[in-house]
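A.,

Following up on our hallway conversation. Structure tokens first:
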């Protein structure tokens, strides 16, 4: 590869929507499509539909006690990187605590659940389609409400039936309830 083979345009964003990721691109620290998502903040950094690599990247900020229902991704592989905080994970029956700097591999087909143990946690989820185009970022957009990224949402009542239907539309099967509240 020569210098002339390297793209000369670097796109950056601080707006609500990311640019197409067909060329070399960078997303600013507060950039992305920000959503109140199941009582926490989700920021889509890379959309699989816009990515030349066919991956999505979503950054989450969640309060203590947050955890999704027990679920399994039928088609997408996931990598979770804990940026700040501490999260308890149960991956197919194997429980562990992931602290800042931990990377967790979540292959498709493995049931999992997690819960934030620290006051707050920030983590990235990277998804890639094992056999189909990934849709995790579209799932986040379907359940989330556009928001200002400066604060966590005030908790609201969540309709588990609606969540299960949207999950099913995106290749995620809900297998059980969210984790029990922390003391």
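Then the amino acids I'd put at each of the 183 positions:
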């Amino acid at each position: 590869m020569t210098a002339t083979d390297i793209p000369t345009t670097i796109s950056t964003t601080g707006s609500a929507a990311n640019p197409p990721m067909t060329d070399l691109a960078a997303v600013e620290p507060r950039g992305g499509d920000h959503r109140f998502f199941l009582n926490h903040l989700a920021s889509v950094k890379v959309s699989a539909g816009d990515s030349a690599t066919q991956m999505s990247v979503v950054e989450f900020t969640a309060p203590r006690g947050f955890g999704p229902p027990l679920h399994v991704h039928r088609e997408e592989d996931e990598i979770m990187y804990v940026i700040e905080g501490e999260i308890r994970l149960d991956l197919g029956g194997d429980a562990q605590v992931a602290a800042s700097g931990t990377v967790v591999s979540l292959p498709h087909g493995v049931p999992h659940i997690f819960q934030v143990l620290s006051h707050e946690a920030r983590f990235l989820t990277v998804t890639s389609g094992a056999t189909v185009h990934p849709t995790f970022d579209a799932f986040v957009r379907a359940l989330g409400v556009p928001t200002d990224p400066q604060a966590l949402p005030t908790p609201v009542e969540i309709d588990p039936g609606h969540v299960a239907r949207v999950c099913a539309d995106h290749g995620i099967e809900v297998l059980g309830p969210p984790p029990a509240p922390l003391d």
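The chain has one domain: 31-146+157-174. Curious whether your intuition agrees with the design.

B.
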